[in-house]
């Protein structure tokens, strides 16, 4: 980028060692106060940054699954409960999975809008919408990445990290969008987008809902949340550029893990081969 800063400096979280936390053993340690439930690719990175500036620590975003991939285990349980009737996933389960967060935004959280609204009646709801064709172009980039060449092979060769994270993303498309292919995901995307916003508006009490327009600054958001206006500009992050960079980092990390795992398998196979020759 033009500012000359490194990828590591712009996205330090993605270079951290995996937290390796099993959320099943966790509990809520901060109150859940804000549910930002707009679809992904509607300014969710900017909203996460804004909510953090306002003191909501932490604000869960879709990229958080790459920081602690064991989260994916509970997200898969949540999808199974909602869409397949397997088990239950209510406030107690969300408290374990999201107990360290005061706010949420982006997928997969927004896949559970009605459930989160019901689980946390004290939380306020923010809805950011984007012109649908502009959103569709951005969504298509995400879907193409999920079904990109080599992805399936990577999930097999790196089951712990790539397999878990891509598994959640594919489950998101398969169950929320009813799509098991890139073509189907693109076909139903606009319909699912409209249905999502209609559902959130239907189930959210009006006094709890803010329909926020990106670009309108701090005032409407702070008034709704009862917060003083910060003495800093509202964060306007280039989501397209941010997404491109983060996907590049994640692909590089996945390739590194695949090569490491493949090398380990080859070493074991080589050793086994020579052992068998001697017996």
Automatic annotation (TrEMBL):
InterPro entries: P-loop_NTPase, Sulfotransfer_4. The keyword Transmembrane helix applies. Keywords: Hydrolase, Membrane, Transmembrane, Transmembrane helix. The keyword Signal does not apply. The chain crosses the membrane at residues 258-276. One of its GO terms (molecular function) is hydrolase activity. Pfam families: Sulfotransfer_4 (PF17784). This is P-loop containing nucleoside triphosphate hydrolase protein. It comes from Roridomyces roridus. The lineage of its organism: Eukaryota, Fungi, Dikarya, Basidiomycota, Agaricomycotina.
């Amino acid at each position: 980028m033009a500012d000359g800063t490194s990828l590591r400096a712009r996205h330090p979280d993605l270079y951290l060692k995996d937290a390796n936390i099993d959320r099943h053993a966790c509990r809520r340690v901060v109150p859940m106060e804000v549910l930002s439930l707009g679809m992904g690719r509607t300014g969710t990175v900017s909203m996460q940054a804004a909510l953090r500036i306002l003191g909501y620590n932490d604000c869960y975003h879709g990229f958080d699954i790459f920081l602690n991939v064991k989260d994916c285990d509970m997200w898969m349980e949540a999808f199974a409960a909602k869409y397949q009737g397997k088990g239950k996933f209510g406030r107690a389960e969300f408290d374990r999975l999201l107990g360290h967060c005061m706010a949420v935004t982006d997928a997969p959280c927004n896949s559970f809008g009605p459930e989160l609204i019901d689980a946390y009646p004290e939380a306020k709801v923010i809805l950011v919408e984007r012109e649908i064709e502009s959103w569709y172009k951005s969504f298509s980039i995400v879907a193409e990445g999920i079904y990109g060449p080599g992805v399936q092979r990577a999930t097999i060769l790196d089951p712990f990290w790539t397999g878990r994270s891509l598994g959640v993303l594919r489950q998101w498309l398969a169950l929320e969008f009813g799509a098991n292919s890139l073509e189907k995901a693109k076909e139903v995307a606009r319909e699912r987008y409209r249905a999502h916003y209609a559902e959130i508006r239907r189930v959210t009490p009006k006094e709890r809902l803010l329909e926020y327009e990106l670009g309108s600054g701090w005032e409407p958001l702070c008034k709704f949340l009862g917060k003083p206006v910060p003495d800093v500009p509202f964060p306007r992050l280039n989501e397209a550029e941010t997404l491109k960079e983060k996907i590049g980092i994640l692909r590089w990390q996945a390739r590194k893990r695949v090569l490491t795992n493949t090398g380990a398998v080859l070493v074991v196979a080589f050793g086994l081969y020579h052992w068998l020759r001697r017996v």
